[in-house]
Amino acid sequence: MPKRHVYLHMKSLEEAQGLFFSAFNFDGYLKTETVPTTEALNRVTAKPIFARFSSPAFHCAAMDGYAVDARLTFGASLERPKELLVNKEVFAVNTGYPLPENTNAVIMIEDVVEDKDRIIIRKAVYPWQNVRKVGEDIVATELVLPPCHCVTPYDIGALLEGGIFEIEVKQRPKVVIIPTGNEIVPIEKVPPQGLKKGEVVESNSWMLRALLAQYGAICEKWPVVPDDYDLIKQTILKAASSDAHIVVILAGSSAGSKDYTASALEELGEVLVHGVSIMPGKPTILAKVNHKPVIGNPGYPVSAAISFEQFVRPLISKMLGIVFENPRKVKVFPARPLPSKLGIEEFLRVKLGRVGDKIVATPLPRAAGAITTLTKAHGVIRIPKQSEGINEDEEVEAELLVPEEEILNTIVIIGSHDLTIDLLASELKKKSPFLNISASNVGSLGGLMAIKKGKAHLAGSHLFDPETGVYNLTYIDRYLKDVSVKVVNLVIRHQGLIVPKGNPKGIKGIRDLTRSDITMVNRQQGAGTRILLDYKLKQLGINPEIINGYEHEEFSHMAVAVDVLSGRADVGLGIYAAARALGLDFIPIAVEEYDLIIAERFWEDSKIETILEVINSKAFKEKVLEMGGYDVSKTGTIKR
Amino acid sequence: MPKRHVYLHMKSLEEAQGLFFSAFNFDGYLKTETVPTTEALNRVTAKPIFARFSSPAFHCAAMDGYAVDARLTFGASLERPKELLVNKEVFAVNTGYPLPENTNAVIMIEDVVEDKDRIIIRKAVYPWQNVRKVGEDIVATELVLPPCHCVTPYDIGALLEGGIFEIEVKQRPKVVIIPTGNEIVPIEKVPPQGLKKGEVVESNSWMLRALLAQYGAICEKWPVVPDDYDLIKQTILKAASSDAHIVVILAGSSAGSKDYTASALEELGEVLVHGVSIMPGKPTILAKVNHKPVIGNPGYPVSAAISFEQFVRPLISKMLGIVFENPRKVKVFPARPLPSKLGIEEFLRVKLGRVGDKIVATPLPRAAGAITTLTKAHGVIRIPKQSEGINEDEEVEAELLVPEEEILNTIVIIGSHDLTIDLLASELKKKSPFLNISASNVGSLGGLMAIKKGKAHLAGSHLFDPETGVYNLTYIDRYLKDVSVKVVNLVIRHQGLIVPKGNPKGIKGIRDLTRSDITMVNRQQGAGTRILLDYKLKQLGINPEIINGYEHEEFSHMAVAVDVLSGRADVGLGIYAAARALGLDFIPIAVEEYDLIIAERFWEDSKIETILEVINSKAFKEKVLEMGGYDVSKTGTIKR
Asked: Same structural domain for residues B315 and B212?
């Protein structure tokens, strides 16, 4: 029976890579095979390749014109033109034509006056002028490609010119992926209505298969193995005894009772590393079975991807004997302080956008289970093991996950959360596919601060001033004294109480929050919704301290709605669209103005102009109305 | 009949791109198709994609441990541990397991002492601690991917988690490539012994096909069309009437009499641009036929590639609605001044290597016909239209063609040319596949100057001092006063007269160079071979002025040998290996020491250590001897 593993001997990333990669001899690890040159793109040469033919294989015209023995042209000048007889002394040739016998130069067509059977020239040519000589590009027997070279499109051209129509390349590394777990359901077995509770779609193996395609490796995905120790052990052994070059076992690498991988690997071979001090990716197992690298890949999708990139990708590069390009790096400023755990190297996913001369990095959620933190990320900030995090004004490096151009095309919106921002992003993408939005939810006041610090193009805000009854403008006067801004209304929206379907606890209004059988979920300090709630409570003379759950804060409308859906809370204040998205009930409380605050220096930026066009478009307004709970009567209005 | 076109209306690159791209409406140009998500890597979304399932679809354990109603744990502390009954109050769960009924938190396994039917805890958990709630990653109906998004491996994971098993993507753009020309022979028709004079292997179409694969487009390569005006015209019309999205006609775009493409395009549709002021790539034709972009691609391979990258690549990016990543750029110093023609934007191929804190760019030959100038290049320097070139000390940008790491792994050798340097590069690649050599031939003295200026790691030199009879050392004393260097012998080699096979003019020695029926080819000033020749002439009391061809200079042994092979010269001084490579005869004249001069600051650089190991290896020496004309008795000896 398997032992229960705890990470007593966790290794740093560098230690783990060192231990793992040095355990194998990659020299000749891959066999070679012969492929047609025309199909050799991205394959890796196994041997030096020498040319069979010279190119050009004959002296040929480098220009369109007339081939000639250069001596016949000597003496020609503007004052003393020379006449030469066509097909006797000179011969019409096009670029690439072989030089006729007894000629050694080409007179360019531009330098010739053609006159029936003769041409007139006013300039001499010297021997071999405008001629491409034999072997000028490639000399037969010359090295065309060295070994361990990844074949490019240009190489294909050069090889064919050199008469090399097939080449010997290294095999593509073959990686066997073994998904394990009783809960994993292959996609073809997922019923249309969805899975049963406890079941999970098989997705990691497909993601890793796509990564392997990028690395130039072959993926053999084996069927899901249930949580059965002997079966798992047998399957690993079978894979390690197959023609696979690398074996990857999915999940089964954390320290749970069903995690048989480490025990099986210990029995079958040698576990080199169990646990790496990276986050995500900690529960990685690195082993050697039958002289082959075997990897226990963690179950959470982000952990799976990062572990794979840190261990499988370099393994493939070493087998092929080529250098994979490292991710591009850019210098960024964090949108807010980024604390991190000492002793762990963290791979923090961030959104990036260029605001003025700064690239601003907004962290995405850290959850290793949330694959969307990778799909939405523009880059990754690696926070070193010895660091406790990054200060707000500390410039750090981010590894790019997207082309750098995408960052230049990113509109950074920081502030209050509203679902119409997602809609705006989607409509913007339709109008101008190259632009994208990086939106971070830090509440309305946080948005104003981001504008002040030059860290955002736009801030979404719905700050109600109880004294004047005005939204946003009085706050701007107070907090953005030194920054010129424009204010554009995005939507007017209904705020209300989000309650479970059917409103089982019969909640009617704000007063019900004080009931002892009711637990609420709140929004964070500085959020416009929080200010609205506090205002309403004050109006009603309610002391927030008596409300269950008042101290429990979430950072978005959807998070509040999810809390209600999940039963974590009975009620929360939020927008109608969030309630509707999750099929929850909604009790309207107030109507408020949600505005975009725009730093004036970006007002004429074409990105901002485009986004304003989208806001003013009929299509956007119609889609906002379809969501319900919104009014677009002021949408697009420049309030200041 | 076709007219003869001259480039009267040549456009700049920007003008040409502007005219061409604005002539088409790319909105909806590509149809859409449905593909399985698992096969959607690198495809481009046609529409926004919304999640069907939430992920997680149920509350589940975020850790291995025991699920519990958090309230049961309240009050537990180090001093007052609590006991909880397994399978009544607490339930063992692994990461990802659904929470059992009436539980709302997970106690981590690490915080538990297990004792038969109960567990002991010393710390409370709060509600929803260590729980992943429904929709924490993906909420059903939420946007997973926007339109015009290129699908990544992570996206595949996210889509499958969100229950999206197939997606609507844009068709891959289909590009029809039509090779033309009587001289073009498809590879399957090339006889083993090679082509007839005047014939050329069909290679451009395969190179462009591989580029299209990189762009995510489909290539339909049509058979070679002979030079027949009506046939070419018919074929273009057929292609433009097919389901192709782009039509590319190869060659046929220069101004020769057989260049029917422009005329045919004028008759069939509209020629937007004929001639672009770029080098290589000038004879590009951009046209519109049947509302489709049709491109006349130049015949020289480098022109073909550059024109394709400037016009076809952006076309595909616009059709797909995505941003292709621009090439990475680095700042470089030229190894020597790089003059360029005013009025033309030049794409100069360069080798790059990092020497100390500088990246040094050594230009490759400019010939548009030489595909090897692309295969050997590490980058491209774009010299603007308004520039006459780049000064030696001018820092400029180079676009990278290889991963930046490859530049760090490049050993820069500048100096005299010897074929054993190619062998060294090949042997080095075998020993250490990640290292490569960038060798430039500027003659021995040029090599010493490069060391002096910090632009080379190593210089190859064979400078003979007639006064002392010593190679290199006296020159180093004279020219490298301020730089500490090491001197290592690479080979002792035979220099001699290279003459055509069978020595038809009966050349016996240096004296024959003065014969009036003999034309020689010389090496450039500063080349060791040139110094040797001048020394021999002086010894014999011969005035160089009476030698035919003495003023005609080439920059390498192979160039000299090619001149002899091609009949351009009857004789040239060079090394045996060059003569042998081209099957020429060789008359030995002298034995000389070819040394590597190494800046001492790089002496302990691991790259240099590796290359010295290769030089000292048995394999290298054996291969040198196999080439003939070399002596390895001093190879690897540190002379200073």
From this structure: yes
